[in-house]
Specification:
The complex is a heterotrimer of chains A (about 325), B (about 300) and C (about 500). Chain B has about 300 residues and is an alpha/beta fold. Chain B has eleven helices and twelve strands. In chain B, α10 links the parallel β9 and β10. In chain B, α1 packs antiparallel against α2, α3 runs parallel beside α11 and α4 runs parallel beside α5. The longest helix of chain B is centred in the N-terminal third of the chain and has 17 residues. Chain B is elongated and about 70 Å long. Classes of the chains: A mainly alpha (about 325), B alpha/beta (about 300), C alpha/beta (about 500). Chain A: Keywords: Cell membrane, Membrane, Transmembrane, Transmembrane helix.
């Protein structure tokens, strides 16, 4: 029973939240329209959290994803103002993400700096870079090509509904990360590192190289999330991604409470992201104060993590 | 059902019928209005929102104030949620160009969106704000009057930020209309650390280049920070008794304190934040009442702050 | 006179019985062995004594009067002292602080810690064990594993007013100790006996038990099978009682003789913790490495496994130079490594058995080195598990749910999966019960018969003599001699480990 609650507590909580919202918002919550909204609202967090899952599988984490998201948006916007074609500006911004992530990987894997310290340092560095590149200003208006802003507003018509582009993009990223973590030797080895880094190393897992790649992928996902954000607001601001980092870590943690061994799993991360997003969406619709909403999200994280670890310790 | 009749009313169709329905069920009818801002923590925004809520309370509206805490994309998300909730009106306090996706969703659902000091946008019913042109005219005419229409004026401008750029244009035009006023320099300070320090450094250089008393009659600043920096430079150079007149705009607390002292910093202009909040509520009420607004921008009067009223 | 008597002790975890009506009676002034295979219920019994686990039913008497043990504090007050198998030390603290761990520090003026007295009292506790070489002020982290264990043990001998010690419970205290250190501990235990106090001694090392203990109680499947005087029982009887059947021999016989072909040649190789070393291993040969703990055995295996770099000299594997740049290169060259600590070095215990087995071989156990083929992996793991007589629910079972012996079999299955040419074993039977031990020895014999070269590092000299063709002796990071195992006696080997062999006086 306890085991059941530990394993499925978070999922049950999620279902209860859905039931509550459906009851309180009978006409508007469980509608295709609202769910398309939710998936679109969550798409950026989803992409960043998917990337975060990759490093957290190894037992590491990356605090710099938020500022990387801001930086990539700013880089793209700056390149737009310099007249670069959209594809080139986006490509270069993604490259910045890859390079920034690789830099994190070098600090953690080669220099041996603790992930917390290394990515805290790059958090400030990337954020500073975003301010330097942008001059501290929001880049918006005519500088941003219309096609770029339209991307986030458009979608693919699927019968009566239109699947938003951002939703599709997030789904693709989740799928790629799923395949990577669950279907490839790369993912298997990352999980081995997360389970026991020494045993993995002695078993021939190339720990350093994998860490480099994993951090680079996380940086890339952060940059992609940042570009999606920039497209949604048709502008770029040196701080706009800063809220993503904590939410991404929270989402992965919520997901971790759902796996037996407390390992991050990408599909569990999806649930974690949905919990955060659905709470925002539903509580907003129920006119619950924004600050109370924050307290609730935090309380749910504590509850979920505590429920899983309390039952773990009671087994001893 | 009632909300539907309200929206019918707003569209201006069957006004007579709708009015009848409205008066029939008036007591139970509470219009739902959402105020969405990423900046609720900032003092100015709090004034708008409080004043807005005061009016809304009188009208019996159900107001949902949503703070996304700096997250602009969050504003779009919350607009979408509010559209989904079929609220009667939405008020935003963010650059509308950055939330076009949300504004479009509201427009598609025929829900009016109002800007509360947000910026102009075709997707907004109207934007309620202070008149930047008028504010610049107030301080520049104050300067011209104090120096008797004659002398050298230093201007602090910032063309990269549109609202401040407009202020500079107006002040230049005012000074240009006085043949004996000469613009000594137009300075664009570096604002990365707030603007005071660099303005002070720039002003010190100008003071050094114009050492004789009376060679600088006034400093006109497009906002308060450069005015404060210029004041510091003048006091540091020991030239506070030459009668150099300094003006700013915005009347922030630090500026008010200096103006109250009766020194060189003589005037600034205060935006009426509360006025903006209540004017926005009025605009919402008018539209909910079926009126079509002619103005895409509604200006709220500003107030000149001098030593006489700085402490208020 | 009976000091402690336990009767009708039963305990079930989630419906699975760990103890069924077990009985244990310890007299004052006696060293009493508690024997049994892993999972027989020894640790549960000890935990009940320690007040950590509440029994379902129990009757516990001390000096004839009934007592209840509801908490570790009660156990302490009753005079029980525990030394656990796991090394519970805080590396960042000093030796003296570790000895005082969980006790009240001596104070000055009621608030300030009296460091001088703390160190003096800790020093006394150490001296009681005849330990003069450990400074109580030293940081724990700077001590060898054996020394850390000694410190841990000495904390049980801390003299304290109020609750005089009556019974010392020792769970595998010698697991990390050298012979010399063990001998010192035994001397202290005999002193305790002479003073009228008692010891409950848990060990897998039968020789120790036979030499040290007065009586033995054997548990099997949670039941007390027998209790008797050690003097009345033989080594083989004890084993038979523990595993419930007779084993003819402790070590399986060699299947074939080693070939004359050299599998691994080590030519003047030096590296971290290893002085220039030369030797070779033939195909099908089992080469033992003996030596006092910390003589470089671990470094040698780490170097051969690719974990530590070769600084000078060269390795030849089947005649071809082998210079691994990491464990990955060694695995793919056919060098398999079974590290000493199976939970922290050998296994990813949170992962399923099959993933542990295929981890070093994912390159070949996947499509194109990239795409996982879990179904094929599981089939392969089941087959490998059968080869090593693994007892598990299935390939998806997590390694942490297995007993020590079965975990070690998973490590072996992993090592053998790539059909390696060289197998490196570091204490492969440490903490493994007797039944599983024999299985592991059989696996090693089988592999040797298939032409695999085996290097076996062990501190169990009987094991080395029973399994190896030749035994190399290491001291101070160098191999001092290599002797044929045949004709060597255990004390002879031990003397050589201490460098007291007249024939190699020049090397010592």
């Amino acid at each position: 029973m306890l085991n059941f609650a530990r394993r499925y507590g978070t999922l049950i909580g999620f279902v209860l939240i859905l039931v509550l919202f459906s009851a309180r918002l009978p006409d508007t919550f469980m509608t295709a329209r609202n769910w398309l909204n939710i998936t679109q609202q969550l798409s950026m967090l989803m992409v960043v959290a998917a990337g975060m899952t990759i490093v957290m599988v190894m037992g590491d984490f990356d605090l710099s994803v938020g500022s990387m998201a801001s930086l990539s948006g700013i880089v793209a916007a700056l390149l737009f103002t310099l007249g670069y074609p959209i594809w080139l500006a986006l490509g270069l911004a993604l490259l910045v993400g890859l390079a920034g992530g690789l830099f994190n990987g070098v600090l953690v894997a080669l220099t041996g700096i603790l992930p917390f310290v290394a990515t805290l340092a790059t958090l400030t560095m990337f954020s500073g870079a975003a301010f330097v590149v942008s001059g501290g200003k929001t880049i918006s208006g005519r500088a941003i090509p219309e096609a770029f802003g339209n991307f986030a507003r458009d979608g693919v018509a699927l019968g009566p509904v239109t699947l938003p582009n951002l939703t599709i993009l997030a789904a693709v990223v989740v799928l790629v990360v799923f395949v990577l973590l669950e279907q490839t030797t790369f993912g298997r080895r990352l999980y081995a590192i997360g389970g026991n880094i020494e045993a993995a190393h002695l078993s021939g897992v190339k720990v350093r190289r994998l860490k480099l790649i994993a951090y680079a992928l996380t940086g890339f996902a952060a940059a992609l999330g940042g570009l999606m954000y920039a497209s949604r607001v048709a502008s770029a601001n040196p701080t706009q991604g800063s809220g993503l980092m904590l939410n991404a870590i929270a989402a992965v943690f919520l997901g971790m409470t759902m796996s037996e061994q407390g390992e991050p799993r990408i599909l569990a991360t999806v649930i974690g992201v949905l919990i955060i997003g659905v709470l925002d969406n539903g509580l907003t619709q129920m006119s619950v104060d924004s600050y109370v909403r924050q307290i609730l999200v935090g309380a749910i994280i504590v509850l979920a993590v505590a429920a899983s670890s309390i039952s773990k310790s009671s087994r001893r | 059902m009632l909300a539907t009749s309200l929206r019918t009313l707003r569209r201006g169709a069957f006004i007579a019928t709708a009015l009848a329905a409205g008066s029939f069920a008036g007591a139970a009818l509470a219009a739902k209005v959402a105020v969405i801002t990423p900046y609720l923590a900032q003092p100015g925004t709090q004034f708008y929102v409080e004043a807005f809520q005061a009016v809304a309370k009188d009208k019996g509206w159900e107001v949902n104030v949503i703070d996304t805490q700096g997250d602009v994309a969050g504003v779009i998300s919350r607009i979408e949620d509010m559209v989904n909730q079929k609220v009667d009106a939405i008020v935003i306090n963010v650059d509308p160009a950055q939330v076009t996706a949300g504004l479009q969703a509201a427009k598609d659902a025929n829900i009016p969106v109002f800007g509360m000091d947000a910026g102009s946008d075709p997707l907004l019913v109207t934007n309620v704000t202070s008149n930047g042109y008028a504010m610049a005219a107030e301080t520049s005419t104050y300067v011209a009057d104090r120096i008797g229409g004659k002398g050298n004026v230093v201007m602090f401008v910032f063309d990269a930020f549109p609202p401040v750029q407009a202020r500079g244009v107006v002040a230049s035009a005012v000074f240009g209309n006085f043949p004996d006023i000469k613009i000594l320099d137009k300075v664009t300070p570096d604002v990365s650390d707030g603007g005071i320090a660099d303005s002070r450094a720039k002003m010190e250089a100008i003071l050094a280049a114009n050492p004789t008393a009376g060679s600088i009659s006034a400093v006109w600043a497009g906002w308060d920070q450069p005015a404060l920096g210029a004041l510091q430079a003048i006091e540091a150079a020991g030239r506070q008794n030459e009668g150099i007149v300094i003006t700013g705009i915005d009347a922030n607390p630090q500026a008010r304190a200096e103006i109250a002292k009766g020194g060189n910093f003589e005037a600034s202009v205060a935006q009426d934040f509360k006025g903006i909040g209540s004017a926005t509520a009025d605009a919402v009420a008018r539209v909910l009442g079926g009126e079509t607004l002619k103005q895409h921008v509604i200006y709220v009067p500003t107030k000149l702050v001098t030593a006489a009223n700085a402490a208020q | 006179m009976t000091l402690l008597s336990l009767e009708h002790i039963s305990k079930a975890y989630a419906g699975v019985p760990a103890l069924r009506d077990a009985t244990l009676s310890i007299a004052a002034g006696e060293i009493h062995a508690l024997m049994g295979e892993n999972g027989a219920g020894k640790s549960t019994l000890i935990k009940i004594l320690a007040g950590v686990v509440a029994p379902d039913t129990a009757s516990i008497r001390i000096d004839g009067s009934e007592v209840g043990i509801d908490s570790p504090a009660t156990a302490y007050r009753l005079g029980f002292r525990f030394i656990h198998q796991e090394l519970n030390v805080v590396p960042a603290l000093s030796v003296a602080e570790n000895i005082f761990l969980g006790r009240a520090y001596p104070l000055r003026a009621g608030v300030l810690i009296d460091w001088a007295r703390l160190n003096r009292v800790a020093g006394d506790a150490l001296r009681k064990l005849g330990i003069g070489h450990i400074d109580p002020g030293e940081r724990m982290a700077r001590l060898s594993l054996g020394d850390q264990m000694l410190v841990r043990i000495s904390s049980a001998f801390l003299s304290e007013a109020g609750a005089p010690a009556r019974l010392y419970v020792m769970d595998e205290p010698t697991a990390a100790l050298t012979r010399e250190e063990s001998a010192r501990l035994f001397a202290v235990l005999r002193e305790i006996r002479a003073s009228g106090n008692s010891v409950l001694y848990v060990s897998h090392r039968l020789d120790e038990v036979m030499a040290l203990c007065d009586k033995a109680t054997v548990l099997r499947d949670g039941r007390t099978i027998d209790t008797g005087r050690i003097a009345d029982i033989t080594h083989d009887d004890l084993v038979a009682l523990m595993i419930g059947r007779r084993v003819e021999e402790a070590y399986p016989r060699p299947i074939t003789a080693p070939s004359s072909e050299i599998a691994l040649a080590v030519e003047g190789v030096a590296g971290e913790g290893l002085a220039a070393t030369s030797f070779s291993v033939r195909k099908g040969e089992i080469l033992g490495i003996a030596g006092l703990s910390g003589s470089g055995q671990r470094h040698l295996l780490r170097l051969l496994s690719g974990d530590l770099p070769v600084k000078t000299g060269r390795l030849l594997l089947d005649g071809r130079p082998h210079r691994p740049r990491g464990p990955a290169a060694s695995w793919s060259a056919g060098v398999a490594y079974v590290p000493r600590e199976r939970r922290s070095e050998g296994l990813v215990v949170s992962r399923p058995i099959y993933q542990n087995i295929t981890l070093p071989h994912l390159g070949t156990q996947s499509l194109g080195g990239t795409w996982l083929t879990p179904r094929r992996e599981r089939r392969f793991a089941v087959q490998m598990g059968n080869d090593v007589k693994l007892r598990a629910v299935g390939p998806n079972q997590r390694a942490l749910e297995l007993s020590g012996g079965n975990q070690q079999k998973v490590v072996f299955a992993k090592a053998l999966s790539g059909a390696p040419r060289l197998l490196l074993l570091d204490e492969p039977t440490r903490g493994v019960d007797i039944g599983a031990k024999f299985d592991i020895y059989s696996i090693i014999r089988d592999m040797a018969a298939k032409g695999m070269a085996v290097i076996l590092v062990s501190s169990d000299l009987a094991e080395l003599l029973g399994m190896c063709d030749r035994i190399a002796i290491m001291r101070d990071g160098a191999i001092t001699e290599i002797a044929d195992a045949a004709g060597l006696a255990e004390d002879d080997l031990l003397n050589r480990c201490y460098g007291r062999n007249p024939s190699t006086a020049e090397a010592a």
